[in-house]
Amino acid sequence: MKNNKLFILIIISLIIGVTLGGIVHYQFQDSIEVFSKNIKLLGTIFIRLVQMIIAPLVFCTLVVGIAKMGDMKMVGRVGGKAMAWFISASLISLLLGLMLVNFFAPGKGTSIKLDDTTAASELLENSKGFSLEEFVKHVIPKSLFEALATNEILQIVIFSIIFGVALASFSKKEAKPIIKLLDRVSHVVLKMVSYIMWTAPLGVLGAVASAIAKHGFEVFTLYAKYLGAFLVGIIVLWLILLTVGYLILGKRLFVLLERIKSPLLIAFSTTSSEAVFPKMVEELERFGCQPKIVSFTLPLGYSFNLDGSMMYMTFASIFIAQVYGIEMSLPEQLTMLLVLMLTSKGVAGVPRASLIVVVATCAMFGIPPEGIALILPIDHFCDMARSMTNVLGNALSTAAIDKWETKSEGNEGIN
């Protein structure tokens, strides 16, 4: 019941946000900048409240999950299944983006003009060219406290896995006090989640009203070809994910979708799949997934399984090349796909993070990186769809791996 109340409140906030943003954009044009900046703070407050609890939640749940598994064979087995899913899903998403952007060619003969690139200057400054050194630095934490302070999910995951494996090597009697403490902390954090989620409707209202007030509805007609092609991609990707989900979960898939409808809507409205991570832990456990599987698979998914972002990266990179009239051969495009496969890892569900990866990739392949300014006006609306898709992909992967594990444990029990 509480879940339905929150869902209804978010829908109402979404409608109010669109209406309010539209009124300001068309009736009070002098106030657009001030209004957008101030109302966006509601979204910022919500996202920061959630970000505040992500690091302790990932650390506690992941360490407890691994320690409770106890058997390192099980950790390896679950990790292997998770990575097989993530790599397969990532490749399918990247390939889908590549195929659709070549098929629809939204960047060819476009009416979109690049008059001002100042909006892209911050992204250009933040992005670094891909190198093996940068990749290693991004993956392996220099300090746990630095990773916790900056919410680097992948780095926290790496430390937590090593810590959990080390803890599991101790006897049950020695490890029990630490496991019990971290388990209690994770439950306290999940209790905080239930409070924080009631601020989600305000966050949704602020994020949506700010975007509509700034860009108005005309942006949809100017970018109709780009948005149309991207929307087809999202629909196809959802069909693929739901079909695979149905083949594995059967009719339980609809129960799962019912459970995650609020996280999906929050991710859609706030453009951050990271914002719903704590709520996802809660809902997947309510769905019936084992806590140890959820706490191990979901944090990994947030670093390695961002299906919507993956599809968008190839789509956006080739679109910019098309606008500039740069022809890329199939081998070049496939090389770009493999580079994106690496550079995107650990991006997490942070708004606009995938744009930084696109900028770095464009620079590598001789595509003017300032071309990112072309898609900035519409990126917020694309980010809504890709964030929601990331959440769906992670929910399905966790539920599927939990089912496989339950089945294999059952078979072991029979044997």
TrEMBL record:
Chief place where the protein resides: membrane
Keywords on record: Cell membrane, Membrane, Symport, Transmembrane, Transmembrane helix, Transport
Membrane topology reported for the UniProt record: Multi-pass membrane protein
Alphabetized GO MF terms: symporter activity
Database matches in SUPFAM superfamilies: Proton glutamate symport protein (SSF118215)
Superkingdom in the source lineage: Bacteria
Localization terms from the record: Cell membrane
GO CC terms in record: plasma membrane
Biological process annotations from GO: dicarboxylic acid transport
Transmembrane regions: 45-70, 82-105, 153-171, 192-213, 225-249, 346-367
Protein's name in the database: Na+/H+-dicarboxylate symporter
Organism listed in the record: Flavobacterium terrigena
